[in-house]
Design a protein that fits this description.
The protein is an alpha+beta fold and 224 residues long. The two termini are 28 Å apart. The protein is 24% helix and 30% strand. It folds into two domains: 97 residues, no CATH class; 97 residues, Gcn5-related N-acetyltransferase (GNAT) (Aminopeptidase). Strands 1-3-2-10-4-9-8-7-6-5 form a ten-stranded mixed β-sheet.
Length: 224
């Protein structure tokens, strides 16, 4: 699925990965400051890879790993065995989506500081403000924004089990997406390929499957 990539998304990927875009069907192996510095949650992510719908990919690794992977192969598929050897894990795909025009759904929720007592613990790591839907003073669902940089914010949504299937998640995602877009950023949405509920929310919220994937390493011995 071919789409014009928003400049904010391209800028985010250049900052995060160290290079963008990849050649169609080809592979770029590079590094960036993001491979050695803490991310939005204080965690250092030493490996990052994004693959597009035409098979092109950018792999971003630490400077020492870069030297080991310069000649790993001309495509991601051919380079994967060597990459997995160097990073010590099996590479798997995660859905990578972004939104440029949310659908016309009614907004939902209020923005609250994460230290508000009505905000559940899972939203605390996002910091700042989070979007929360309340029934009275009882939490029903919410969205946290992973503030990656000045170009993109990643949306994470959750609803209480009893409230699922009522369209709450998609309205929260759309409301948060509009805020990110109003800030001049592009909103992104990642989820496990097997998470069909999350996929349904994404599709209904203006995040189609464009064939892009985030490629992540699963540690050796993991059952995932």
């Amino acid at each position: 699925m071919s789409d014009v990539v928003p400049e904010q998304l391209a800028a985010h990927l250049r900052a995060s990965l160290g290079a963008w875009p990849p050649p169609p069907g080809g592979l770029v192996v590079t590094t960036s400051a993001a491979r050695t510095e803490p991310g939005w949650d204080g965690v250092v992510r030493t490996f990052q890879c994004v693959r597009t719908d035409d098979g092109g990919a950018v792999v971003s690794v630490t400077p020492d790993a870069l030297e080991q992977l310069r000649d790993a192969g001309p495509t991601l598929a051919e380079a994967t065995p060597r990459i997995e050897e160097v990073v010590g894990g099996r590479l798997v795909d995660v859905m990578f989506r972004w939104c440029v025009e949310p659908p016309a759904l009614e907004p939902l929720g209020v923005w609250l500081p994460v230290d508000d007592p009505r905000v559940p613990a899972w939203l605390h790591p996002f910091g700042g403000e989070v979007l929360v839907h309340l029934d009275g003073d009882t939490y029903v669902g919410g969205v946290g924004l992973k503030l990656h940089d000045d170009h993109a914010s990643e949306i994470s949504v959750g609803t209480e089990e009893a409230a699922r299937g009522k369209g709450i998640a998609r309205r929260l995602v759309v409301t948060a997406s509009r805020r990110v877009l109003d800030e001049g950023k592009v909103p992104t949405y990642l989820h496990d390929l097997r998470n069909h509920a999350s996929a349904k929310v994404a599709e209904a919220s203006g995040y189609p499957d464009r064939g892009w994937r985030l490629v992540v390493p699963i540690p050796e011995g993991s059952a995932s």
